């Protein structure tokens, strides 16, 4: 990472290609065109922070935006970020994410605090290089994509453009992998997730311990179900058992 500690004006074309090659492991960086990646690699610089370090504070002016090269960060609404260390389900961003671009792009104060949950490596772009290299134009396309997605949903058909634009500014686009758990318990989640592409499966835990028809069905089909069900529920499984019902949710 030593090459990313050099000042932009001191970097050779070879240095820029090397930085770009390293950053291709960052998902949010790969979304940009080759030309934009080259421009970012010219100006981005490396920072490393320990657990508990606040990167940006709510209410401060946005002067930089960040790529997460490694580690985990949390987004909170308190100024010092301490709630993230106590919250059972904080909003987390991992390697490949980026943040801080909206406040920088629109000249706004930060709407959240970002704190490191473990040792974290960041690649940073500051305001001066951001606008000098016209990086704002590419980020504006991302905001427009979010806005158009929300505008296409019937749920927001009655919302005015200004309110919808605020929603687009305050949300975050993330790419999730196959079999990745998005939410462990929706009853405890404080976030709303919109599926823009792909499919997800919702598993519901249903308690059938007091359901007579379930008990009857188990007794009738015990020979066919075999030991696998009995091993799962135990000898008291008929009285204590619960089944999972799944639903597939396509893209909105």
UniProtKB/TrEMBL annotation:
It is found in: Cytoplasm, Cytosol. Residues 28-130 form the Cyclic nucleotide-binding domain. GO terms for biological process: spermatogenesis. CDD domains: CAP_ED (cd00038). It holds the Pfam family cNMP_binding. The keyword Cell membrane does not apply. GO terms for cellular component: cytosol. The keyword Cytoplasm applies. Keywords: cAMP, cAMP-binding, Cytoplasm, Nucleotide-binding. GO terms for molecular function: cAMP binding. PANTHER family: CYCLIC NUCLEOTIDE-BINDING DOMAIN CONTAINING PROTEIN, CYCLIC NUCLEOTIDE-BINDING DOMAIN-CONTAINING PROTEIN 2. Essential for male fertility. Plays an important role in spermatogenesis and regulates sperm motility by controlling the development of the flagellar bending of sperm. This is Cyclic nucleotide-binding domain-containing protein 2. It comes from Engystomops pustulosus (Tungara frog).
């Amino acid at each position: 990472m030593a090459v990313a500690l050099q000042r932009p004006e001191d970097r050779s074309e070879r240095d820029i290609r090397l930085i770009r090659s390293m950053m291709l492991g960052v998902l949010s960086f790969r979304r940009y065109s080759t030309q934009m990646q080259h421009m970012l690699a010219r100006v981005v610089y490396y920072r490393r922070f320990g657990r508990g370090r606040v990167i940006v504070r709510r209410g401060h002016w946005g002067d930089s935006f960040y790529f997460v090269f490694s580690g985990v960060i949390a987004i909170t609404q308190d100024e010092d970020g301490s709630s993230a260390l106590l919250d059972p389900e904080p909003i987390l961003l991992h390697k490949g994410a980026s943040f801080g671009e909206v406040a920088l792009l629109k000249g706004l104060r930060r709407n959240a605090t970002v704190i490191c949950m473990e040792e974290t490596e960041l690649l940073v772009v500051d305001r001066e290089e951001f606008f000098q290299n016209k990086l704002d134009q590419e980020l504006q396309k991302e905001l427009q994509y979010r806005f158009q997605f929300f505008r296409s949903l019937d749920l927001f058909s009655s919302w005015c453009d200004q309110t919808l634009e605020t929603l687009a500014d305050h949300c975050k686009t993330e790419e999730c992998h196959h079999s990745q758990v998005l939410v462990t318990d929706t009853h405890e989640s404080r976030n709303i997730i919109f599926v823009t592409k792909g499919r997800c499966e919702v598993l519901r835990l249903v308690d059938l311990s007091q359901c007579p028809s379930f008990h009857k069905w188990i007794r009738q089909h015990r020979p066919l179900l075999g030991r696998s069900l009995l091993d799962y529920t135990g000898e008291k499984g008929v009285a204590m058992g619960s089944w999972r019902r799944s639903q597939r949710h396509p893209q909105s």
